[in-house]
Amino acid sequence: MTDSVLLSIDDRGVARLHLNRAELHNAFDDSLIRDLTHHLQQLQSNPAVRVLVLSAEGKSFSAGADLNWMKRMAGYSEAQNLADAMDLAGLMHILHTLRIPTIARVQGAAFGGGVGLLACCDLVVASEAASFCLSEVKLGLIPAVISPYVVGKLGASQARRYFLTAERFDAATAHRLGLVHEVTTADHLDEQVNSWIKLLLANGPHAMAAAKQLIDRVSHSAIDDALIHDTAQRIAHIRASQEGKEGLNAFLEKRPPAWIRL
């Protein structure tokens, strides 16, 4: 039986999670959700891992929910549906809060939960051939557990359009909306991914983790005394850290910092 998710980690600490259900357009089911969550938990606790690339096999990035899974869900009680939804919510949350930078490599269609996956990633590059759709209302459903991340990327106004119309949009539109950072040809996807990897590996690992936490803390927060103190405390803490001291000393001494492997 072929693994639905493939994980590899190279000697630079670059991890690659690859959805491997091409025959099913990398659609979600409870098994795939468990596998992805398990792998992400492993990566979260592995200090040697520096960057994650999320990619997919075949024509589609992810078509959202698997048909057989949806058939099973149709017979679930509300309590069973809640437990099932919490598993998917847990997957989205751990991907969004992963301590390392995450890159989504989108080569084809991303529908429903597939849009949720890339919305949870820090950097997204898509092929010109990619397409996107938040199609849940066509089935009488809503994109509930992915909504905090998708609305965070699209904003409320555009979410109203695409959640309600379930219209398909192309990569150029996804870029304009802020869901995708770069659009390129299919044969240049890896070039863009590798360019980002090179940039990320040059940065302090703890600093990047702290920067991700900082963004979550200040986004949509009132600029009050509590926030001002919190941000001051964060920079004071990281300046006094081993990595902060190493970075400043390396800059002053005109040498590469210790986290750059020459």
From TrEMBL:
Keywords: Lyase. Gene3D superfamilies: 2-enoyl-CoA Hydratase, Chain A, domain 1, Lyase 2-enoyl-coa Hydratase, Chain A, domain 2. Transmembrane segments: none annotated. Its EC number is 4.2.1.18. It comes from the Bacteria. One of its GO terms (molecular function) is methylglutaconyl-CoA hydratase activity. One of its GO terms (biological process) is isoprenoid catabolic process. Pfam families: ECH_1. Belongs to the enoyl-CoA hydratase/isomerase family. This is Methylglutaconyl-CoA hydratase. It comes from Chitinivorax tropicus.
